[in-house]
Amino acid sequence: MADERTFVIVGASLAGAKAAETLRAEGFTGKVILIGEETDRPYERPPLSKGHLLGKEGAREKAFVHPPQWYAEHDVDLRLATRVTHLDPAAHTVTLDGVDELHYDKLLLTTGSRVRTLDIPGANLTGVRYLRTVDESDALLSHLRDAANVVVIGAGWIGLETAAAARHHGANVTVVEVAALPLQRVLGDEVAAVYADLHRAHGVRFRFGASVAEFRGTDGRLTSVVLADGTELPADVAVVGVGIRPNTELAVDGGLAVDDGILVDAGLHTSDPDIYAAGDVVNLDHPGLGHRIRVEHWANALNGGKFAGRALLGEEVVFDRVPYFYSDQYDLGMEYSGFAAPGGYDRVVFRGDPSVTGDKAPEFIAFWVRDGRVLAGLNANVWDVTDDIQQLVRAGWAGTTVDLDRLADPAVPLGELLT
Predict the structure, then answer these.
(1) Do β-strands 113-115 and 106-109 pair in parallel, antiparallel, or remain unpaired?
(2) Coil vs helix vs strand at 417
């Protein structure tokens, strides 16, 4: 007997596409409608600030989750350039572009996030760029290929990856950051200093403890970035990377519980029994960490979409994945697993030497530890250790401590620390 249910997914994102894929892989035969505001079919965002921004051939096409024909072949009704303007949980409907009502039996919100913007003079000048979408990555790549001077505002992951790409294309690069180090809030002083040294070794200049007051230009084109202290930095391109904010407007409109994201439990249920959420937009009650967390990275969207697809089908899922992300800058590749809040750890244990010598990237693992428990680990140019690090993190969640001297000793296999 055919399944007559309609599952609607709002957000044609990585999480949304993976949820649709999972529904079909699990044998769901009802209607699957995937709705997105962008004109491009679902894609992954990491290549936009990595391979594609470096100009690597084929990187743009590899970003797409599925080939164009996949959606028709799997009977997924993909509706692009379509905005969901209203959610009525009582009626089980969403309104498209303020006009058409669409009924759902189950609804999944994978609406993601949008960039935080700077509302300062000159913000509309040509050359002031953000990086979140395929179109923005295309435009920024075009700018970087010709730019002599690039100013990056914000020394987070996007900012630093963009700085590395700009240096790859030969531009002079200055990074402006309000904190005292790049990635300071995420990595703490010890590991953040490694990234400061890495970028300096590749010719990047930093302006720490600084903020931007104005963009200046001529004939509508950016020529300089003015800091709050009056310093004027020449710039053909200014890339703003000051964070993202979750797209919760639809959830608020529908009366769902929202607090720095859509509140979901470990089963990805929202406060409405027929509505689920996954990806950047969710504030998850994480069963391993024991508190809520909103994770803005690729792996969360990838895996969250898969879990949400199963949840829509009525499976009792528990989304307890170890938070994970990765970054590539120059010849330094890294993976980070776990979560260590600012001030939430008592020391960082290094395995290997994190020093940057010349422009050579180091090879090391860093562990954030509290009371002998591993909270997080970062492997930099050391590979095939993520599973071991995540086991250490899960053990730390459970209260298991490790010998810190052995943790620091490269001669001791990571897999033996818990035996």
Answers:
(1) unpaired
(2) coil
Residue 37 phi/psi, 5-degree rounding, is -80, -30
SS (HEC) of 348-380: EEEEEECCCECCECCEEEEEEEECCEEEEEEEE
Domain containing 289 — which CATH number? 3.50.50.60
Location of structure tokens 């639809």 = 250
Name the pairing type of β-strands 232-234 and 221-227: antiparallel
CB atoms within 10 A of CB 213: 16
User: What tokens appear for 290 in the block?
Assistant: 């024991």
DSSP-derived pairing of the beta strands 282-286 and 262-264: parallel
Q: DSSP string spanning 67-83?
A: -TTHHHHTTEEEE-S--
pLDDT on residue 359: 75
| CB count in 10 Å sphere of residue 242 | 20
pLDDT at 358: 83
Q: Out of 194, 219, 242, pick the residue that ends a domain.
A: 242
Low-confidence stretches of the chain (pLDDT < 50) are none
- For 316, half-sphere exposure in the C-beta direction (CA atoms, 13 angstrom radius) is 0
Residues 6+ apart with CB under 8 A from 122: 128, 214, 215, 216, 217, 222
